[in-house]
Write a structure and sequence with these properties.
- This protein has about 750 residues and is α/β, with parallel strands linked by helices.
- The chain folds into four domains: about 260 residues, Alpha-Beta Barrel (TIM Barrel), CATH 3.20.20.80; about 100 residues, Immunoglobulins (Immunoglobulin-like, Sandwich), CATH 2.60.40.10; about 250 residues, Rossmann fold (3-Layer(aba) Sandwich); about 45 residues, Golgi alpha-mannosidase II (Immunoglobulin-like, Sandwich), CATH 2.60.40.
- Helices cover about 30% and strands about 25% of the residues.
- It contains 21 helices and 35 strands.
- An eight-stranded parallel barrel has the order 1-2-3-13-16-17-18-19.
- A hairpin with a 4-residue loop joins strand 31 and strand 32.
- Helix 10 packs across helix 14, helix 14 crosses helix 21 and helix 15 packs across helix 17.
- About 50% of the residues are buried.
- About 0% of the residues have low confidence.
């Protein structure tokens, strides 16, 4: 087994001796600095490949303090203020962090700002409002009493959001705030390129420039209490400037409104059904960002160095899954490994020579403090990532932060030693190839390929109450024995469904980018195409509120395919009849059914005790199903639908025969081993591949199997922190038994 290589070690100044010791223990062949740390000569003398973090648009206050009108800007939306009479005063900065944001009073407010009557949605004529710059207040005349008013205004970002986060997390005290700058301005752009050219000459020991990242931060705004206020890892809010807005108008032939950015207070969340203005701005911004990224990459190569992009921080505008990313010439992409989904987000990127994952925990004092055991998070993070790595390998791994903190925790040091060796062993055995995928599965939404492995996300690897019922689908798929791609509604409308796709998964809450919004009523060809595909033998899995939009007496526009619709209080006078639950089915074969629950189902049909099937209100019992947040008032459209789970008048899981194909409805699937197993069975059943299911499957859902046909191996992994036992059936029908220690992996030749 290889014991050295594929590992990047973070370190810092005055820590060379311990760095050497840990580098040998962990098999590190490269070292890097992190935000707030530097590599001294003693560390550089260790002879490792040297990564250096580089921040193109911060850490040069000597420049930007002389050009404070060239910091990045953002459109902010004030709070709603109720007009008591015909005048109303609207304070700009209430609720915003004044150390981070400052209103732009330099550009003409009446040209670039907007006052909106939020009761009617009408824009207030600029002649009816004035700005009191000293008080940062907008005064509106001619207001309608008891209407609410807001101001959408430009603000300078005067503290780099990531440096600010690190500053607050690590209590950097009096350290000078780093001010970001915007390369859209020619003088600042020249400064950035000139500074980088000089840096390359001054740092001959650096082998890899780790751009962290480039020019525009994802939307990360804080409130007066230094708490996160708006967080959108895909958000383009912090990318505007008067110059860019004017150039956009020249190029696209129309002018963007402030409302196109604040979006009624939604700030263009990726959950919003994307609009033309939003898509056009992404295209405009990406063109500008990529052209200037190419300059930096070419400079790196001219200096004999590799160029690596960190998929995080100022990544906005790079769009690694948007056509043309490979033209940038980047050597590598590195990203933070939060779970299986984020692992795949990095590993599946094309157009670079290699990918690298930064594992957790980050070596910061919020985790590495006396009394805590960071090894718990390290193992949990590895188990989540390993599932995905077996399906789509990253080439390298590493960590970040203060090595001097991590070195104080021997149990953590031992954990990383084991993880690093196991990571290299996977590569040695498989040659860096992916495990075999037995089905081709497509995730269908508004964004398609451009947001591969980014669906159902708000903040990086942090699903919340409103998203976890959907995000769990991706997490399950990230380590499943299927090949996954992402397609858009436009793809289906224009090109149909690719002939090699076995299953299409679509869904999300109503009026979101994931369920599709009004695309179902605007584009009848979408429903026509999917219906024809399923009738011809395809498989459609709908999650939550798939194809939802009230139209022509139906809410789920593909209810006929899925066999399920949702009552929207329009047809309460029409009775709905539920067939009896089918407790035993291929899909639910691994789900424990309590005998008392089975009897109740037979007596009461759809009225299923929560203790027997999981349910929509909290975690499922052992062996049960957790459907996450309930989708109320769903019902079978007829009694021919096979109802597999229901709860007090709502469908949780159902199957519908549709021509030669099948539709499956599931209300939600937060990630768990049991739910991942359920989804896997759904995919094989829906696509009529039940006969292919048994080979290389595990009898224990907590354990998974990956088959590497070309390498002649298969492995079984224990995805828990407890010992597990399982049987694995091979293609010839023979069965092998495995007893696995906690977090273990076992290999067998085939």
């Amino acid at each position: 087994m290889t014991t050295t290589g594929r590992f990047t070690l973070p370190t810092e100044e005055n820590f060379a001796e311990k760095t050497k010791e840990l580098a040998e223990l962990w098999g590190a062949d490269a070292i890097r600095n992190s935000d707030g740390t530097h590599l001294d000569d003693a560390v550089l003398a260790l002879g490792k490949k040297v990564y250096s973090a580089y921040f193109p648009t911060r850490a040069h206050n000597e420049w930007i303090t002389l050009h404070m009108d060239e910091t990045p800007q953002v459109y902010l939306l004030t709070g709603r203020v109720l007009a008591q009479d015909s005048t109303v005063d609207i304070p700009l900065m209430d609720g915003f962090f004044e150390e981070q944001l400052k209103p732009n009073r330099d550009a003409d407010p009446h040209k670039y700002w907007e006052v909106v009557d939020r009761t009617t949605g009408e824009v207030v004529d600029p002649s009816d409002w004035t700005l009191d710059a000293d008080a940062d207040t907008v005064h509106v005349d001619g207001a309608t009493p008891l209407h609410e008013y807001t101001v959408s205004f430009l603000a300078y970002i005067i503290w780099d959001p990531v440096e600010m986060y690190n500053h607050l997390t690590n209590d950097w005290g009096d350290k000078e705030h780093e001010i970001p700058f915007d390369i859209y301005h020619p003088a600042t752009r020249k400064f950035v390129f000139d500074t980088f050219e000089k840096w390359l000459k001054d740092n001959p020991a650096v082998d890899v420039v780790r751009f962290t990242t480039f020019f525009y931060q994802f939307t990360l705004l804080f409130d007066k209490k230094r708490r996160e206020k708006v967080v959108d890892w895909f958000g383009c809010a912090c990318t505007v400037s008067p110059a860019a807005l004017d150039d956009f108008e020249k190029q696209y032939g129309y002018r963007l409104r402030p409302e196109d950015f604040v979006d009624e207070g939604c700030y263009n969340s990726a959950w919003r059904v994307p609009r033309k203005a939003q898509r056009d701005w992404i295209d405009f911004l990406s063109g500008f960002v990529r052209a200037n990224v190419k300059v930096l990459v070419d400079d790196c190569h001219a200096a004999g160095k590799e160029a690596m992009m960190f998929l995080g921080d100022q990544w906005i505008g790079t769009e690694p899954y948007k056509d043309g990313f490979g033209d940038l010439g980047l050597d590598a992409v590195v990203g933070s490994i939060g779970d299986g989904t984020t692992t795949r987000m990095i590993a599946d990127i094309k157009g670079v020579r290699y990918t690298e994952g930064r594992f957790l925990p980050y070596f910061f004092p919020d985790t590495f403090y006396e009394g805590n055991d960071p090894s718990i998070e390290a193992w949990d993070n590895w188990r989540k990532a390993r599932r995905a790595i077996l399906r789509s390998p990253i080439a390298r791994m590493g960590y970040g932060g203060y090595l001097s903190l991590a070195a104080k925790f021997p149990k953590f040091v031992d954990a990383v030693t084991h993880i690093a060796d196991e990571f290299r062993d996977i590569h040695d055995r498989t040659g860096g190839a992916a495990a075999e995928g037995e089905l081709n599965v497509a995730i269908l939404n508004s964004w398609g390929r451009m947001r591969s492995w980014m669906a159902y996300t708000v903040a990086h690897a942090l699903p919340n109450k409103q998203t976890y019922s959907y995000y769990g689908i991706l997490e399950a798929l990230s380590g499943m024995r299927v090949n996954v791609r992402f397609i858009s509604f436009d793809d289906v409308i224009e090109h149909g469904v690719d002939s090699d796709i076995d299953v299409v998964i679509t869904g999300g809450p109503v009026d979101t980018a994931y369920s599709g919004g009004d695309v179902w009523t605007r584009e009848p060809k979408l429903a026509e195409t999917l219906r024809a595909w399923v009738r011809g033998g395809g498989a459609l899995v709908g999650v939550g509120e798939p194809s939802s939009q009230w139209f022509q007496g139906r809410f789920f526009q593909l209810a006929d395919v899925l066999g399920v619709d949702e009552e929207r209080f329009q047809t309460l006078s029409i009775d709905k009849y539920f067939p009896q639950v089918t407790p035993d089915h291929f899909i639910t074969a691994d789900v424990h059914v309590d005998p008392a629950a089975r009897e109740a189902w037979q007596k009461e049909g759809y009225r299923i005790p929560l203790s027997g099937c999981g349910g929509g209100q909290g975690k499922a019992p052992l062996g049960g199903i957790d459907f996450g947040e309930a989708i109320p008032n769903t019902f079978p459209i007829n009694e021919d639908v096979t109802l597999l789970r229901a709860d007090n008048g709502q469908v949780q899981l159902a199957v519908n025969e549709y021509g030669k194909g099948r539709g499956v409805y599931v209300s939600g699937l937060p990630y768990s081993a049991a739910n991942a197993r359920l989804l896997e069975r759904i995919l094989f059943y829906a696509s009529h591949n039940e006969d292919r299911y048994a080979a290389y499957s595990s009898t224990n859902p907590e354990c998974e199997v990956a088959h590497f046909a070309d390498a002649g191996w298969y492995c079984v992994i224990n995805n828990t922190d407890k010992p597990q036992s399982t049987d694995v059936e091979l293609p010839d029908g023979t069965v092998e038994h495995f007893d696995l220690d906690q977090s273990a992996i076992a290999w067998r030749a085939v």
